[in-house]
Amino acid sequence: MxxxxxxKKNLKLLSDPLGGxxxxxxxxxxxxxxxxxxxxxxxxxxxxxxxxxVVAAANVIISLLRNxxxxxxxxxxxxxxxxxxxxxxxxxxxxxxxxxxxxxxVFVGLIITNCILMGRLEAFALGNRPWQxxxxxxxxxxxxxxxxxxxxxxxxxxxxxxxxxxRIIPDSWYIANGGFYANNGMMLLPPMALILxxxxxxxxxxxxxxxxxx
Amino acid sequence: MENLVNIFIKSIFIENMIFAYFLGMCSYLAxxxxxxTATGLGIAVIFVLGIxxxxxxxxxxxxxREGALIWLSPSFATVDLSFLSFIMFIAVIASIVQLVEMIVxxxxxxxxxxxxxxxxxxxxxxxxxxxxxFMQQKEFVNIGEASVYGLGSGIGWFLAIAGIAAVREKIQYxxxxxxxxxxxxxxxxxxxxxxxxxxxxxIKL
Lengths: 214, 205
Hints:
The complex is a heterodimer of chains A (214) and B (205). Chain A is 61% helix and 2% strand. Chain A is built from nine helices and two strands, in the order ααααααααββα. Chain A has a two-stranded antiparallel ribbon. The model of chain A has no long low-confidence stretch (mean pLDDT 83). Chain A has one domain (28-206). Chain B has 205 residues and is mainly α. Chain B starts with a helix and ends in an 8-residue tail after the last helix.
């Protein structure tokens, strides 16, 4: 390889999806699962790691095969590779973090139809070398993860007063114990996740005027 | 019969695909700019969900589940293929979408032209795979329940996308803060619609 492994161009592949081309807020890929698993932080983190692993691995595999896959059947080839990887991830989650895997329920399986995967495979891996595709996969997985972790933190903190199960808001603050504070139950309801994503998009676009739609 | 009606109402309003589970959000956000295309896609999703779920139900109960292969030979009683369900379901969905596309093209060319590119895209719509996986989880007792669940979830999805498309058509004329225009406001409006749909949660069925 003539190019250095971590040249400037390659690092850009890794850092772009974290901000300017974030898969959720800018490319609008993979929104479904991003919202459903974020009522608590722990499943959100597990989900981000799973998606990152699957995107990176699928990108590398497709990129290695990119010159041998006939164009007409590429979608079905991609689906089979993704489905096989997701089955692996599902079995690993069931073996090592069974409670989280129960909480995620069908959303592990839904990684297959997560648009981030198809989107990155079609847009990037089919036309680039394996190493670049790997970086692109990690970058996009991380960009997805950042949004999930932000939403998960906000929802768990305000919805149940804890982060990762550790109590942050002291017990004595609660009305039941003679305090003044009550959890915002709405944070735990599904619609609140949508509104939070809307707000994140709002903040991001006010800081980065290039992204504003007409 | 009463049971079927319950499943139907529940899957449309209480367990709405979009507002309760966020399934199929990608196409929901991408195709909801105009009411006419949104309703076309909605109808296609009802169609595909209504056909896919009974087929996946048969697959689940006669091939994949532990002991499901017993009709072939009693010695298969302990075979459990359920780890294959993701890959089988996605293959079924992809082929049914292809089949529906061919049937619609042959018998209803007008509808086919209206749906255009959206028909093949349904294969990667999470609502379909999600519906199949929920069906697997709910362990329906017969194929009738599975079909009704499929139709109901499809109609729920249709209602959601038709509603948001109508709102977005109107919202174009409002004065929204620039950074919120387009995607941002769509998310917030969907959230508000979801809150309204939560009102159905109180219904006991």
